[in-house]
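Researcher: Re-running this chain for the archive, since the previous output was lost when a drive failed. Same request as before.
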Amino acid sequence: MEADTESSPRDLELSALEAEKEPMAAGGEDAAAPPEPGPSGGEKNGLVKLPEELGIPIESGGSKFTGLGKEELLRAAGTPPWAKARAILLLLFWLGWLGMLGAAAAIVARAPRCRPLPPRSWWELGALYRAPPAAFAGDLKGVAERLEHVAGLQVKGLVLGPLHPQSSGLPQDTPLEQLDPDLGSLVDLNHLLQAAKKKGIQVILDLTPNYLGGSAWFGPAVAEDPGFQDKVKRAMSLWLERGFSGFFLDGIEELKPSVLAEWRNLTEQNSPEGIPRVLIGGTRLPDPPSLLALLNSSAVGLMLGPFLEPLLAEPLSPTLVPQLMEFLGPKTPLAWSVGSPWQHLTGMSPLRAPQLLLLLWTLPGTPVLSYGDEVGLTDDEQGGVPGTPKPGQLTPMPWPLIEGIQKGDNSTEARLLELCRRLGALRVQERSLSLGDAEDISAGSAAAFLRSWDKSKRFLVVLNPGDQPLPKLALQDPRLPPQATLQLSTHHPPPADAHVDLGALKLRPYEGLLLSFPYTP
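Model: Regenerated structure tokens:
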């Protein structure tokens, strides 16, 4: 058959391969035949020349070395020299390993230990921002639209309200559980709470009952009335169910500590998403001894009061900083503020406003801003003293002015806004400002204190509390280096060379400086 007489392509390929291998077979006829030159004149691949062909002599009677077999290797390895060598190498390995382990343990033991981070809640790590909806943005929808501005200040909590309507100023006509329809609906409120949550802002409800009257609790008789206290308790439970992260109650000096303790337990026990809730107490007590007594006896989670009011006095006491540090001693955490939504910081002290903002952000505790403080908002002629507001007294937030601020703007409002944004960012970034201790620094006619935490960068705050310049202020303290870096000034942008000599500082009237320097052992 044709299939038997003709070879397949596969057979032809195999035959060609066999033909190439034939010259390599020893003793064949063609083994000594000279190789045919290839196309390029070289030798054909696969040909191997024998030693005699290459001119290499082979000694007669010689034998090839083929290496040691398995049994020979085992016999050689068991000889005393090799056994000794193996033992020495094994000993050196373990000695080296133990040496490295000991060195690592010594490094760890001698390395300075980092100070453990203390437990901190969200209201202790950032600022709070007080914003009555009508004055801040008109209604709840407007507040939701303006949250980006609040978030830009590194604010952790928005104190919203009061939200309940109040008309007659009588306790029986104060529906604490209701939302004022002029501010929006519960749907609007829920949208606001969700929008704030997405920006990392917790919303606290101002539930002060008599926010339009002289006494926050309608007088001592109502404040101690168990029936009215139950009414407040029911309202708190309802607002917590609606999604608030805590409450602000003003005028707590009118309430018994046991009542506040019960309300605090109610607030803190309702934390469905694992985010702690807080009861903030506000006080209007003016004198430091009364404030200290209230701080030591209060049962709230955070206390807000006029602790910086001594800065508004003329002349300032030379022991200003030690007086402020005294407020940090009691067990109740402290929140710093100047004024309120009804009487703004800049209106109370225009010249010291930048300096006061610097203090709010750099003192230990929680800074609290009233809406508009960050742009120097002042109250109109209808503004009254804190605690005695009336409808229509709240000054509207100047949104057209804020939206018109551009980069490089040198207006007062722009400088204050940039100051607050910069301080808010530093407080979040730097542990010495958010967690650190505060120490008084002797500064002569000025006031100064140092913030420090473990081995983090140190921050030095220097204030000129007077209306006269300080042309050459020398800070000489063993805790301070000769030079520091100027982070910011309340009165001018940092110079190109931010390194300053702490032995020759220059401060303008009412100027404040924030300086930093690295930790040194």
